[in-house]
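Teaching note: in complex prediction, the entire set of molecules is handled at once rather than each chain in isolation. The prompt given to students was simply: 'Predict the structure of this complex.' The entities are:
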Amino acid sequence: MTTIEKRDRRYVEALCRRYRRWGAWGADDERGALNFITPEVLVRTGRIVSCALPFDEQSPHSGRFGGRHNPMHIMVQDGGDIAFGAQDHLNELRFTEDAVAMPLHCGTHWNALAHIFHQRRMYGGHGVEYVTSKGAARNGIEKVADGIAGRGVLLDMPGYFGVEWMQPGQAITSEDLAGAAREQAVEVGSGDIVLIRTGHIAKARAEGTWGSYEAGDAPGLGVDSVHWICENEVAAVCADTGEAEVRPNDTDEVFQPLQLILLVNAGIQLGGIFDLENLARVCAEESRYEFLFVAPPSPLIGAVASPAHPLAFF
Amino acid sequence: MTTIEKRDRRYVEALCRRYRRWGAWGADDERGALNFITPEVLVRTGRIVSCALPFDEQSPHSGRFGGRHNPMHIMVQDGGDIAFGAQDHLNELRFTEDAVAMPLHCGTHWNALAHIFHQRRMYGGHGVEYVTSKGAARNGIEKVADGIAGRGVLLDMPGYFGVEWMQPGQAITSEDLAGAAREQAVEVGSGDIVLIRTGHIAKARAEGTWGSYEAGDAPGLGVDSVHWICENEVAAVCADTGEAEVRPNDTDEVFQPLQLILLVNAGIQLGGIFDLENLARVCAEESRYEFLFVAPPSPLIGAVASPAHPLAFF
Amino acid sequence: MTTIEKRDRRYVEALCRRYRRWGAWGADDERGALNFITPEVLVRTGRIVSCALPFDEQSPHSGRFGGRHNPMHIMVQDGGDIAFGAQDHLNELRFTEDAVAMPLHCGTHWNALAHIFHQRRMYGGHGVEYVTSKGAARNGIEKVADGIAGRGVLLDMPGYFGVEWMQPGQAITSEDLAGAAREQAVEVGSGDIVLIRTGHIAKARAEGTWGSYEAGDAPGLGVDSVHWICENEVAAVCADTGEAEVRPNDTDEVFQPLQLILLVNAGIQLGGIFDLENLARVCAEESRYEFLFVAPPSPLIGAVASPAHPLAFF
Amino acid sequence: MTTIEKRDRRYVEALCRRYRRWGAWGADDERGALNFITPEVLVRTGRIVSCALPFDEQSPHSGRFGGRHNPMHIMVQDGGDIAFGAQDHLNELRFTEDAVAMPLHCGTHWNALAHIFHQRRMYGGHGVEYVTSKGAARNGIEKVADGIAGRGVLLDMPGYFGVEWMQPGQAITSEDLAGAAREQAVEVGSGDIVLIRTGHIAKARAEGTWGSYEAGDAPGLGVDSVHWICENEVAAVCADTGEAEVRPNDTDEVFQPLQLILLVNAGIQLGGIFDLENLARVCAEESRYEFLFVAPPSPLIGAVASPAHPLAFF
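The expected output is the structure of the full assembly:
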């Protein structure tokens, strides 16, 4: 540490002017120095694709299903406060500040292994007494928060079926999954994270409304898809529907059977509301359905779900 | 899509038993199928290090500074509800559900370019009227939500200075940054994300209390660090202190001068409360201070900050 | 209901000027027409009637209008936690604990005098700079929190009109108000709190749905009702609709003209979503339309509205 | 203050049994001692005194105790938004809008009968399974929301003891209560709401800090006060401390014994954080310690507590 003298305001202002980059990447630029990033050969092309739905009041939830409402964004200090002098006690700098309140399933999310119980047991056989008002003492999302990152494989089911999007109620089988992988010339193996595109978000966009997206009928994985998923030792499965499995379920006797088989028993993370439209387009352009997939949950201690901002690296 | 018949409960239960992996990775396992992941040569060693502080009520905020309190985690359905029969109308499956309310700066976070104003202008010259109670209409965090991913470089300043941690009030200069990079045998260049370890979190842990971590004195970047940062075309800077710059600031005339120079003018993302302790240990073990760094903000529309769960890939 | 013509902006502005009371009780006054109240001896039988709608997720708001959602009730400790031993460190006693998050207009509520601006002025002539992200520095609800208690008078308009409930869009005039009071044999005078029943809640109940109750068409006070209200020196007006005035408004040139005339200029508290069904029944049984009316807002510092639990004492 | 010995668990349990009123007003009763209230003609002068502490971020809670933080007030639309044109689509009128998030015990509040359990039973003998994440299905605050209004009697204990305020740890006995009533020349009888002033808020104000007000030592009702309270058929008891009873409790074997005896068994509403300073002054001025007391909880369905804005009418 060099001994340094106290600087004055003019010095700071000179530095502000010297390093001002407003307009350096066009007048409309809002990404600043991130424009410098040109991802390297660590990953092959450096192309990055986001698989998250924006978190805002236009999200698909209405609060009708289990109290899942859209994220509420709250400004604690805003430009009006600055204009009216609320921060005039500060030298030069003014700031804005905000907060959010959101159900943890309300957008692109992973379920924790503590999210689902079968005969009063969650993954590992732990009982209901491990999830109290304080959160999950076992299988909380923080236990896997750094773990959902690895090789990702997109299976573009509408592409395989030759349709724009699958229809609500259409169930995907093990044979379908194997067929799609084959046609896409991609192998799926131990530790892969499999992303299932059904086109359900594309359909909602085409129709201009979320409609019953949050809890209604949807295409998705059927009971018979679990063989392919488990035998291939898939680490995690996510989809562009609410909870990845077909609705109505293809059994009347068990509600959301895949949550029981895959999450509670096989310990497979399940993710919902992933926006896979851009990803499918890029995979097609790159003729490549595998990528580095980084989608860490937040380390929310004891949470039974977490929003995520998943990125695919090509 | 193969035509498939409706399955019954016994079929689902058989699948549950068949694919049950409880105990497959030890009786205490809470990561499930993620154990299958063995990151490949996409990244060199596959070793992944989290740089996030856990989000919980033990976080460093008390609400005294600008209303920044710790995250509040809320259970909407828990094990008690299941035990008392609240979900007995569902076939077989039972679920837990939760929500969170949190200030967006309260843990490991990135500031949006809309977070700071200088002479009523934010990055790009936009005025205060662009941040209202509805959020930021310019430079909101969603504009860079998929952008904070690329080559990361850790500069371990206590390692360079030969101390356990830097002292509150100690300022880091451009010369210090260049010296640390040189000693660590790492080059810093255009587009890099630079992580500055001061040891401030290690100090809090050693003392067993956050004390004034949230808003008090801290080591960090001094005004004279901006030359090295800007001339090297660094894309983003984060640190293990509240807001990366030294407190008290090394000027009395400007509050938080680096926010003005780096964020408002040079458009450089600034991140705070990154936990860099494990990262420093791993960098030393690997003798390698560069890595793929993936730390996307959440796509919270109009937000002026976002929590993040940053991962370093070796 | 007299047939009435649509009024224009100049008409509303003339009424604003005519009934403006800024300064009538001193330049610093923030209590408005509540200054008229001089509580009397009114309680005779001890019969108490609640005029609040229950606060729960069955309330009329959906979040579509201005972010007004229903109250969210959150359990912090519940019976499940007790059953699972979370409080076993306590001797003998076990407790439950909860919290609420609610928009302040979402149920039975009073508007503060800081709720409405006309030509950038609120009651007393204070500008928009007095309401920042920190709340209202002038005319916040706490300024009248102990003031909304005194003689209450119910005007049962459907009773007067001989209908079950008024129709959406039907406007009440000064003549109607005078007529109803006359028929009910009740005098209205200085300091009275006037409760207007339109039957709009009865209609929603009969139809089994809130429908567009929160922000759609509604019966209510028309522009021409203000003469009777102001000339009688009424202290506060509330109704069983969202905001007491007829929707669509009976002028196309001014949105919610009564808020401008009565609240901004005459300083009269306006309350909405009061459930007056039981009250109307009891008034009829008692043949008495006056009562001690106690409906204090909460002393939420700087708030621009407050929920209330109004009680009428006979 | 009589010197009193520490009581044991059996003593408390005997009192619980002795004053148990489960079923006294029918097996389904959820209103407890409020059944004693028969409101009278009490209002004489019209003088009104508020007994609420302001609800704001200066309230006594820090979040350290059971997650009870101060109320958070959130502006949804404010003057800055109006100034920046966010509502320019509206004709003439501009509005502000807000919301609040608050623990229900965080300010002046009543406990519901569902707030406390003893041997897994609450008032009326209902089990823990009646309070789930959805709230209290029995004894929720809405069951008494219109009931806490009637004759109020202030017992000014520091006045009786001839001190400015009682000291933390000082316990009030039945004899003290009887003595204070006698000296104040007021009778206490069936259905009365008794307000106990200890001066604990006056002490905090004199010291300029809430200190450990929220959960630390406090003066208050001792175990031996319950005889006077129950035998007089008091309907509700509130005080100017957190939860009305002395801290540390005058038994080591039972935490908060009065909550068990009075609330769980005798069905007596208990209120805390009532600001009784003005009330004591007015009672002295009027030489009258009885008044009409109106302090309705909010009708928050299933809540186990509620903020209230209590008013005393002279």
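Point out the following to students. Chain B is about 20% helix and 20% strand. The longest strand of chain B covers residues 149-156.
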